Amino acid sequence: MSALHYNAMSKNYKIMPFVNANFPTFFALDLKLNTIGVKLDRDSPLPLWAQLLDDLKARIASGEFVSRFPTDKEMIEQYSVSRQTVREAVRRLEQDGVVVRHRGRGTVLTETRFEQQLGTLYSLFRELEKSGRHQSSKVLIQESVRNAELAPMFHLRETDEFFHLERVRYADTLEVAIDNVFIPMKYASPLLDVNFEHTALYDELEKLCHICPTKGEERLSPIILGDTESKLLGTESTLAAYLILRSTFVGDQMLEYRETIIRGDRYCFISSFDTSKPTTSSNISAEIN
User: Class of the 112-270 domain?
Assistant: First the structure.
């Protein structure tokens, strides 16, 4: 079994085709904003500003406002609501750090997309902190488990145990990723007592277990989030995301298996190349399924 073909998560998500209208893209800069009238439910006990807020959040999550955020006038016309309703909804977005109002420039989205260079052994914790954001985690699972499907990948017996860590990763208050990690307990037993709310797994692994990855490989696929992942990431179930399967090694010995789901609207991956330099061991390949 390939180290990158096992899937330990619940598979609520769907593998996404290469072209999908819901996938956020930077190539929509010349597209006009959707101006089709949106009807809010005036019989609902939910205030109009709250309904407008929910709809704007859904449109932001889908990548609709990549080029620009609509003006108050456009939203008043589109939703058939008062200026006060629009201002209250936008005020709530600003309060949550989603948008910023500038005098003379209007309302703009805050920068919530993070970049990651491919071909390197990176730490999500370090990359988010490097961007100036406070990285934190909500730990969902931190325990010792047995996994009969994973064991053969590590050349272990079915009765051997793994350190299993599942977290929701945040940049400031923004949900960025769901992380599932499995490491053989023979390497990672001290990690059971670590507080992973604000620390990097590899730092703790090196500090407490005196071991760290020397090489690894990843498989990155676009997916559509399922209900479970959507709730954890605080978004709509139709949002596109990345599924990253990672295996790391110490020499030829497998050290870690990891599955990470990253919100597609908050992360992008960068690959650089230089034809004047010899090819390195970092290869990027495409698969046709």
Answer: alpha beta
